[in-house]
Design goal:
The protein has helices spanning 2-24, 93-96, 101-104. The longest helix is centred in the first third of the chain and has 23 residues, at 2-24. The chain is elongated and about 90 Å long. The termini are far apart. Helices cover 20% and strands 0% of the residues. By secondary structure, the chain is mainly alpha-helical.
Amino acid sequence: MKIHYSLTATMLAAVAAVLFVASCATTPAEKADVRGLRPNQLTEQDLVPAMTEYVGKTPGEQERIVRNFEQQPPLIPHKIDGYRIDFKANRCLECHDRPFFKEENAPKIGDSHYRDREGKELKHIWMGRYNCTQCHVPQANAQPLVSNTFQSIKAGN
């Protein structure tokens, strides 16, 4: 019985050694050309990104942009250069807040923005939703950084 165990242990050790040597003897893989989104090396000066032209120029002069998926925050269809959003002012509220949206013919801010974290209804926009550009962005005609095959379900696929 003792001989049987030592023979089995010897055979297992030999098989393990052969597998180890075989795994080390494989040819090295070809060097892959791995590139990230950064167009230049870390040691080089950063390139200035190309300026993108926004789709809309002046608020109210263009149609709303169709959303691609459920619960997508609406895109801003106009330029927002120079729009001030800080603790003292939020220029988006001048047109989209409850008291002004009808007069300005602008989309109203969603009701969810007037509820706090616990769901309590507020008379003013909740500060957790105050920074509009955290979720809403202007639409630009920009080329994608990486290839993309996304198709909206609304496109009839």
